[in-house]
Each structure stands twice: as C-alpha cells, then as structure tokens.
Write a structure and sequence with these properties.
Number of strands of chain B: 11
Strand content of chain B: over 45%
Structural class of chain B: mainly beta
Helix content of chain A: under 10%
Helix content of chain B: under 10%
Strand content of chain A: over 45%
Largest interface: A-B, 22 and 27 residues
Structural class of chain A: mainly beta
Largest sheet of chain B: 7 strands, mixed
Oligomer: heterodimer
Shape of chain B: globular
Number of helices of chain B: 0
Largest sheet of chain A: 6 strands, mixed
Order of helices and strands of chain B: EEEEEEEEEEE
Order of helices and strands of chain A: EEEEEEEEEEE
Chain lengths: 111, 115
C-alpha cells in the first residue's frame, strides 16, 4: 500500500533556527516524492521533488530534502527559518497514476 | 502565463442545491484532479481524469460528479447527496502518464460553504 505520514501537525521554530519537517512513506515500488507549501487560502506550490536522480534534493527558498531509502524518509530542512516560511507543508508520493498526500505540517516562525 | 484557474474563489449555497466548481488549465496537461481539503486531514482525492472523456473515482467520490469534455476543463459538481460539502476544493493537473516524475500544478482553490 502507498501512504505518506508526516510527524507533527504543528512545528514552531524561532526565526533563524533550523527547520526540520518529517515525512515517512510506504511504497511498493521506488517512489517519486514531493514537498509542497501552502499559504492560507491558496493552492499548493511545489518546493522540490525527488525522482531518483540524486538523494539530496534542493528546492526553492533555501529548502532541501534527503531521500533515505533505508529509513523510508524524505525529511524537509532549511538551515535558517524566515518569517515568510510560516505556512503549511505537505509531503506527497506518486505511484500508479495517483498522488498520495500526508496530512500536513503547519510551520510557525517566532520572531 | 500558463496555469490553472478555479472559479469562483468563494461560493455560498443553501443545503439541497447542486453547485458546480469550475477548473480550467492552459498547460496542455492530460491529467486533471479534484481534491478536497479539510483542516487536519490533508488532501483527499475526489475524482481524476487521465484523458478527455474518461475519469475515475478517487477515495471520496460519493456525492460528487465530474465531466471531461475538453482537455482544458474539468468541472466538479457537488450534489445534494454530499453529506458534508463545506470544504476547500483544489483542482490540479499534471502532464500525465508520459511524464511520471512531473509534479502536480494546483489552482488557488474554491472555498465552498453550504448552510
């Protein structure tokens, strides 16, 4: 079965601190993995995607994610949080013509 | 610029009325999707279409209907049979089977409130 689990529905960090948003997946075949960001009352925007070319994937706005097959994880990180990073983040998996989304993590950035 | 347009952004309806949400894309994508988003539940797939004149039920299709008469358009009708229709609805598209690694492109959503 295909599934995505995001640990922590809410994460709070101080401005300038490391951001770590966790994503674990379950897939019967090598997965395509994505991270999206959503600002209030808007659609989702692609941050980055993993398509098996490289395990460390760099995305927009300074975010990156590392694919770890042994841990079935695809955690999202950013070295230094900015106030504008406050949003909801979704991890997603693509297999067999369907996308599977995690339940989302809301990131709060404190000044 | 290419993208996905959803209209209207906000929609209010009385219980028992059918309502249709519009989704148009000019990305020349084959595949289109409708998702429902509720707080704390992520995105749930309602219907998807890989090609014109064909569509498949997603995980929560009951009470919804769609059509795909044109490649650019994938309207969603929320019928009176949908027990809890108030939600944020997102339309998305992707190139389709020929580009497995391509991500979804999303519209800005329609917030439907039924009272």
């Amino acid at each position: 079965a295909q599934s995505v689990t995001q640990l922590g529905s809410h994460v709070s960090v101080s401005e300038g601190a490391l951001v770590l948003l966790r994503c674990n997946y379950s897939s019967s075949v090598p997965p395509y993995l994505f991270w999206y960001v959503q600002y209030p009352n808007q659609g989702l925007q692609l941050l980055l995607k993993y398509t098996s070319a490289a395990t460390l994937v760099k995305g927009i706005n300074g975010f990156e994610a590392e694919f770890k097959k042994s841990e079935t994880s695809f955690h999202l990180t950013k070295p230094s949080a900015h106030m504008s990073d406050a949003a909801e983040y979704f991890c997603a998996l693509y297999n067999f013509n369907k996308f599977y989304f995690g339940s989302g993590t809301k990131l709060n950035v404190k000044p | 610029d290419g993208g996905i347009t959803q209209s209207p952004k906000y929609l209010f309806r009385k219980e028992g009325q059918n309502v249709t949400l519009s989704c148009e894309q000019n990305l020349n994508h084959d595949a289109m999707y409708w998702y429902r988003q509720d707080p704390g539940q992520g995105l749930r797939l309602i219907y998807y279409s890989q090609i014109v004149n064909d569509f498949q039920k997603g995980d929560i299709a009951e009470g919804y209907s769609v059509s795909r008469e044109k490649k650019e358009s994938f309207p969603l009708t929320v019928t009176s049979a949908q027990k809890n229709p108030t939600a944020f609805y997102l339309c998305a598209s992707s190139p389709g089977d020929r580009s497995y690694h391509e991500a979804l492109h999303f519209g800005n959503g329609t917030r439907l409130t039924v009272t």
